[in-house]
Design brief:
Number of domains: 1
Structural class: mainly alpha
Shape: flat
Number of strands: 0
Largest sheet: none
């Protein structure tokens, strides 16, 4: 299943537009990762599996590139990402 972009990007301007373009691009990359990995799991052909998993890995790199840009243009996103990391560390800390 491919995601639908939840906002009409054409109505945005400036920084809002740039942030939403990056978020939509990340959504697209995540969809691609899921698609390639699902296809790889469906086939019995090892060559196809190898290539599809390699492509999925490249898409993961694209997510990292796009996220890096998003964190540059959206300070709030960067702050909340750090908060999320800390919360996970606190919740999963072994006692």
């Amino acid at each position: 299943m491919l995601s639908k972009i939840p906002i009409d990007i054409g109505k945005l301007k400036g920084e809002d537009l740039n942030r939403e373009i990056l978020r939509a691009a990340i959504i697209g990359e995540l969809d691609a990762i899921n698609l390639y990995e699902e296809f790889a799991n469906m086939t019995d052909d090892q060559d196809i599996q190898i290539v599809l998993r390699d492509i999925a890995q490249e898409e993961k790199t694209h997510v990292g590139e796009l996220q890096t840009l998003l964190l540059r243009v959206d300070e709030e996103q960067a702050i909340e990402l750090e908060k999320g990391k800390k919360e996970v560390e606190e919740l999963t800390r072994k006692k």
